[in-house]
Amino acid sequence: MSEVFAFAGEIKVATMLASVIPVLMREKIPDRLIESPRSVAELAENTAINCDRLHRFLQLIEVKGLAKYDADTKLWHSTEKTAVIAGQFANDTWSWMFSRYTQEGILELGEILYSEKSVYEHSGKKPIFEHLKENSDLLKKFQNSMKAFTKLHADAVERALDLEGCNKILDVGGGDGSLAIGLAKIYPDKKFGVYEIPEVIHMINENVASEGLSQNIEAISGSMFESVPHSFDSILMKHILHDWRDNDCKTILSNCRKALTPGGKLFIIDTVVERGHPAFSIKVFKDINMLAQLGSKERTTEEFRNLLEETGFRFEKVTSAGTDDIVLATAI
């Protein structure tokens, strides 16, 4: 019985942390702790925070080693782990992953065992991408979070991508252009395009211009469900197909195939779930996350092979890229 209560307690603490930490980050509490040890009053200075409650919330994150209290000086200190919840990078990531929208969805996770829906569809809410289009603040948090994840794994992905023989590369669903920007710096002789929905185009143009790469990268507005631009010899998609169910993926892949001439390369950057892989536990977590948010999935090698063969591609190989993988296919 005690083990049951202990396990339930761990889950409850995790849920509380997911609610509390984003607010502490919003008020720059972790950043202030890293700057110097401070009293609760000093941490709450210039905010509307209740000091007694802040002290109690800090005790909560102390449980996980994210802060430390000195009872003699009555000062709160940072720890080595505090950096995990400090800075813009962490804030962007946590703001999306633990927004109220995503939090409420996770609480309904178990119920979708009985359906083919995502947690949001199950609870009567709009699908996530429709919701993002109508909520600019959440869309920005989502894009910033995706940008943060791209940066986190960018080196591994960029090293693993072999663009030899590719001259014009289109990043379908390329977000704010972060991946294309990183690749354009490595391959200054190549041209890149970023294909995105109209709501994101201004973000791409701003980021590309700030990097001085307007001559190397073109932002193109449209829907991958309707068509894909034909003026590129290669296509890459990072974290796109795992957002969609098989029938939607077939539509996207068919449009990609129409856009390429035979021999054109397709690079799918996603998670390939296979037992025995060192990162299997992380891959399973990603799979359940996609199931919860979108009713979609991370796929096995065989599932990718089947999708590609049904849409006019020849499956070539899978290359590991950190916690991501790169599936290479050729248009036939």
Automatic annotation (TrEMBL):
Tell me which InterPro entries the record gives: COMT-like, COMT_C, SAM-dependent_MTases_sf, WH-like_DNA-bd_sf, WH_DNA-bd_sf
Any idea what this protein is called? Answer: O-methyltransferase C-terminal domain-containing protein
**Keywords (A to Z) from UniProt:** Methyltransferase, S-adenosyl-L-methionine, Transferase
Q: Which Pfam families match?
A: Methyltransf_2
GO biological process annotation, one example: methylation
Q: Record's superkingdom?
A: Eukaryota
Q: Which Gene Ontology terms cover its molecular function?
A: O-methyltransferase activity
PROSITE patterns on file: SAM_OMT_II
Q: Show where the O-methyltransferase C-terminal domain sits.
A: 113-314
